[in-house]
Design a protein that fits this description.
The protein has 12 helices and 10 strands. The chain is of the alpha+beta class.
Amino acid sequence: MPIKFTVDEPVARLAERVREFVREVVLPEEQACDGVLHDGPEPLRRRLQQAARDAGVFAPHLGLDLRGQAVVFEAAGYSLLGPLALNIAAPDEGNMHLLAKVAGEDQRKRYLDPLAAGEIRSCFAMTEPAPGAGSDPRALTTTATRVTGGWRIDGRKWFISGADGAAFAICMARTSGVPGDAGGATMFLVDAGNPGMKIVRNIATLDEGLFGGHSEVLFDGCEVGDDAVLGEVDRGFGYAQVRLGPARLTHCMRWLGVARRAQDVALDRAASRSAFGRPLDELGMVQQLIADSEIDIEAARALLWRACWELDQGRPGAQHTSIAKTFVAEAVHRVVDRAVQICGALGISADAPLSRLYREVRPFRIYDGPSETHRWAIARRASKARAALR
């Protein structure tokens, strides 16, 4: 089956409604708070999500395949608050996907239903301070040991996005083996009111636009029942791939919206600002910057759609997902960087959104696996595929 590069009419109409909603409702809210969301003003989230419901664009991904989501999520990502308003922001969107695939019926009613409705938020607690799990999840050091009636979780997590104010965490803990083993992890659903789970601190970071920020979380004698196990014991690493593969792509979708916005700002500035007797967009060096950004956006979108198509067809998509994530993360950064350069002093000021977009996109080359880890995996798969043909 060939990959389609046309957008189905219903998806195109939905994306246009999302673009209009983001322009008219969401961008003014972003400008009012300067894109700073780590403190998580709950009234803002609820106000935006109610506005999305009223506009008929809340949770727009329901019923769409990944390529359809790519179109709609890019439209939402034009504003840093767009995904939050539509309830398709990380980490909630990835957690919804995971719960829909793995959770039991009671767990779906207790956690997935209110999360999908926007009544609560969530977080995903896997990353640990060194020498624990990071780029290599097998380094997992947090443990869960059997106790009467359930499990006791002990360990320290950090950079847990959205933890401050989350109603529950999906915590990855080792139930067998030792750090470095490829198996032995289990996922647990932990309610925020559990006395054994504490937010130690909210970490100050370069980016400021993720609702609830990034936290260090301590699990100290955190006891949960057997009903807190998500899926099956010792299958956590496999479930993580169920979540992380599509989540990497939905990150790319949202950040492409940021790239498009930065390019639009640069184009408007290049058309209105003159230097040396001519508009900037008539100067060759500026034209090269504009052209290179258009190339990056189009190439990033094509790679993303290819990876989405692979997963939509039920094919193993690890290679194309890694390629897309690596390229898009770096391309988005290049586009925003060029926009700053075209806008000059305005670009680095708070009078334009580019400086805050720049801060937001730089960490994307680390989120969901740094570019270096993905390149290692890409090269390894390529070498193995070639060796199989010899």
